[in-house]
Design brief:
- This protein folds into 2 domains: 32 residues, no CATH class; 46 residues, no CATH class.
- It is mainly alpha-helical.
- A two-stranded antiparallel ribbon has the order 1-2.
- The protein contains 3 helices and 2 strands, in the order E-E-H-H-H.
- The relative contact order is 0.11.
């Protein structure tokens, strides 16, 4: 069940497993409202290719910062879509 404590903001009821219809609430959240009231930082990029490029560049920064610090990096990454991985490989190899 999705509840809306603020207009335009969808919050999942943790006591219930969401159904496919519940996700339609998330699709109605405007770009301005994404992340509002949440501890997660949000930014909007263009299309799917822009998202893949942004994710690859963000991952590269984390990897390089880990190398620089000598601590290494541990990333939890999506298993799909995976368009960012070829971009990340190219950036690493450049």
């Amino acid at each position: 069940m999705i509840t809306n404590p603020q207009p335009g903001i969808g919050v999942r009821d943790p006591s219930r497993t969401p159904s496919p219809g519940d996700f339609s609430d998330y699709l109605r959240v405007s770009a301005v409202d994404l992340g509002k009231g949440q501890p997660v930082k949000m930014r909007v990029v263009g299309d799917a290719q822009s998202l893949a490029r942004d994710l690859a560049e963000t991952m590269l920064v984390e990897i390089r910062e880990g190398e620089r610090s000598g601590q290494g990096s541990t990333l939890i990454v999506p298993v799909g879509p995976v368009d960012q991985f070829p971009i990340l490989a190219r950036l690493i190899n450049e």
